[in-house]
Design a protein that fits this description.
By secondary structure, this protein is α/β, with parallel strands linked by helices. The protein has 10 helices and 9 strands. Strand 6, helix 7 and strand 7 form a beta-alpha-beta unit. Helix 2 packs across helix 9 and helix 5 crosses helix 9. The longest helix has 19 residues. Bound molecules: phosphoric acid mono(formamide)ester. The site of phosphoric acid mono(formamide)ester has 9 residues, from helix 2.
Length: about 300
């Protein structure tokens, strides 16, 4: 069988994205399907995680696979100097698929080129987080009934936030209009604005964050300022609380509008938003289970027909 890794959302056609969302929908109907009995899923997390790792592991367990892996590279032989290449080759001796989060941009692509088993990118530095994007797309589809023609407002750390980079690329198929709300220091990188222009995607940039700016949003995608990506923590201190969404700011928003956040949040969404029906971030994280069941199955060659 051809080896299929899941490294960047840019590799996925519109048809493939919609197909994966159909798979996620099937898994939401019934998460417990022992179709991976006898398979081993390895989760290699070189960076901290709560949702991504636990939802991948839950996905694997609910599909009947067994899970091996680590959550702290300090307890592995990489702390003795073992290279990523050797680590991947070693783990592929034991596992049928490798889910990896790594601090280096491009690490997942590199791993996919040397690994005999499929690699699933669970986040590579500030680059991509494609499995998050699948659950974001699923959440958008569930709440809006469509992925087409939406006004998507991305707020916060657009420079280092890999989730917004992946989501922007995935949405190219669906005629979005983007609004990028960020302080000067954390603006959407030039390469992603060039990407928008190349795909005829309209975008607007703002530094103000208030109820008038967000009034036309269908999706308000909040992000955390990524402390771990700053080399100068003084710079982080200057921008860490630059935008905080309060419930009072939602008065003028559209009825269909939903607030997404990849989580974890720090201060950027006040707790008084949680009880607003427009807050969707905890359900969004739950959708990660179904989206990741679809991803694991797809890289292992299991089709929608196999699970229906
Ligand atoms: N959204 C996300 O990647 O969360 P974790 O860092 O907890 O996995």
């Amino acid at each position: 069988m051809e080896k299929r890794s899941f490294v960047t959302i840019a590799d996925l056609s519109k048809e493939k994205i919609l197909y994966m969302l159909d798979m996620a929908k099937e898994f939401e109907k019934n998460t417990n399907r022992k179709i991976l009995d006898g398979k081993i899923v390895a989760t290699l997390f070189f960076e901290p995680s709560t949702r991504t790792r636990l939802s991948f592991e839950t996905a694997a367990n609910r599909l009947g696979a067994k899970v091996i892996g680590f959550t702290d590279p300090k307890v592995t032989s990489s702390s003795k100097g073992e290279t990523l290449k050797d680590t991947i080759i070693m783990v592929s001796n034991y596992a049928d698929v490798i889910v990896m989060r790594h601090y280096l941009e491009g690490a997942a692509r590199y791993a996919s080129e040397i690994s005999p088993v499929p690699i699933i990118n669970a986040g590579d530095g500030a680059n991509q987080h494609p499995s998050q994007t699948m659950l974001d797309l699923y959440s958008i589809y569930k709440t809006q009934g469509t992925l087409e023609n939406l006004n998507i407002y991305m707020v916060g750390d657009l420079k280092y936030g890999r989730t917004v980079h992946s989501l922007l690329m995935a949405m190219r198929h669906f005629n979005p209009t983007f609004h990028f709300i960020a302080p000067e220091e954390l603006r959407m990188p030039e390469e992603y604005k060039i990407y928008c222009k190349a795909h005829d995607i309209p975008f607007f940039e703002h530094t103000e964050f208030n109820e008038d700016i967000i009034a036309d949003a269908d999706i308000l995608y909040m992000t955390r300022v990524q402390r771990e990506r700053f080399t100068d923590l003084m710079e982080y201190e200057k921008v860490k609380n630059v935008y905080i969404l309060h419930n009072s700011m939602l008065r003028k928003t559209k009825d269909n509008m939903k607030i997404l956040h990849p989580l974890p949040r720090v201060n950027e969404i006040a707790y008084d938003v949680d009880s607003n029906p427009k807050a969707y971030y905890f359900q969004q994280a739950k959708n990660g289970l179904y989206a990741r069941q679809a991803i694991i199955c797809d890289v292992l060659g299991i089709t929608l027909d196999d699970i229906k």
